[in-house]
Amino acid sequence: MTKPVTPPLVVRVREASPDDMASVQAIYAYYVARTAASFEEEVPEVAEMERRRAEVVRRGLPYLVAEEAGEVLGFTYAGPWRPRSAYRYTVEDSIYVAPFVQGRGVGRALLGTLIESCAEAGYRRMVAVIGDSANQASIALHRSLGFRQEGVLRGVGLKFGRWVDVVIMHRGLGDDSRPLPDGGSAPPLPRDEDIA
Ligand SMILES: CC(C)(COP(=O)(O)OP(=O)(O)OC[C@H]1O[C@@H](n2cnc3c(N)ncnc32)[C@H](O)[C@@H]1OP(=O)(O)O)[C@@H](O)C(=O)NCCC(=O)NCCS
Q: Ligand 1 centroid to 84 CA: how many Å?
């Protein structure tokens, strides 16, 4: 018997609203409670997820959901990669797709839109900090959208009694002629071939 083929899902990617956050929290709760994809260990409540969404939006960064037939099937957002000011044009993505629709193109639709949105806003780099070097789905998704693996930090997390790696990947965003998000200008980014 041949394996059934699961067709890709056609989803609408749009900005998240406060009303979406119960669905977003349910998706995220699954991965916090059962996997090392997130290094959080306590499931945050809906109000906390909404507080986080509002903070992303306050910074002018995108917080998106993928919807099909009125159901939220995944979410993604960009946040500052690190707090020190010189990092201000580099963002970090986060992305979670409902477990029952994994592998059907929802992650690709979400992350592709997030990348476009951050590039349009003038950000220069996007970093992925992937929980668990066994997370093949996330590594494949990021690689497929132009991220390059930069390194693996071995055993930097302890979850479920196991030391967990982090895989660092990153990519450039857009071209050098775009104004920065605050309207300023910057020299060209080093090209990948210039980075040893
Ligand atoms: C990682 C995740 C967001 C990917 O989203 P998805 O909807 O499942 O992935 P897609 O169907 O869009 O697939 C994107 C690409 O990854 C590949 N891929 C997806 N799952 C894969 C797997 N388990 N193994 C290998 N490759 C995989 C697909 O073949 C596709 O490649 P292509 O674009 O070259 O055809 C999703 O699986 C998820 O939420 N995982 C759990 C939470 C998580 O790990 N989040 C990321 C935290 S860093």
A: 31
